[in-house]
Amino acid sequence: MILKCFIHNYRYTMTHKRMKHTPILLATTNSAKQYKLRWLLEGLPLSLATPDDLGLTGQVPDEDGNTHLENARLKAEWWSRAGAMPAISSDGGLVVPALGRTWNSLYTHRAAGDHSDDQARLEHLLRLMRPYKGNDRRASWVEALAVADGGRVTGSWEVEGANGHLLDTPGPGPIVPGFWVFSIWYFPHLKKTYNELTEAEMEGLNDHWNQLRSHVQQFFHGDLRTAE
Fold this sequence. Notes:
The protein has helices spanning 16-19, 31-40, 68-83, 118-129, 199-204, 208-227; strands at residues 2-7, 22-26, 46-49, 87-95, 138-149, 152-166, 185-187, 192-193.
């Protein structure tokens, strides 16, 4: 389910030949998220760069938006200026209805403290969920994505993915750095946590990344057609 989508009246002014060599910055220092962004752009005639490639390590933008979409847009704008090239950035979080005001998806990675590690974040959420059973352990994921060039957003999307349940202990899959939630986000009908799912299973769940890939591919293919 797509929550929000903004495609701005902007088209690249380059020729199709030059578009094949257009760089784009994977605007995150998290290697696991870089992998996902690469996957979103797979097959497109773009040259992918990371902050490390540009010597931008140690620099991060503020994430003070009121929604995931605002954060994704702010980050894409900041990185496109810092890298002097188009940038693609995302921002997401876990939605847990039963926790009410105790939990805000915007602070999924900061709920246990700004300087906590993934293990501390995981333990914090497990403590919060102890009183809840059955359907009260339902959870979904919201992910927003934005593309910007020269500090200007050219396209942005926010989607909500599949519904699963939160386990009371981590599953057998590895804890992926930056994606620690996925070790306890469980899908009973598949008997797997999110980080154990195959690409085919994710597609069947209408996964948030699958939804975003469709939007991003359509967005860039539209630019290519216009540039021809």
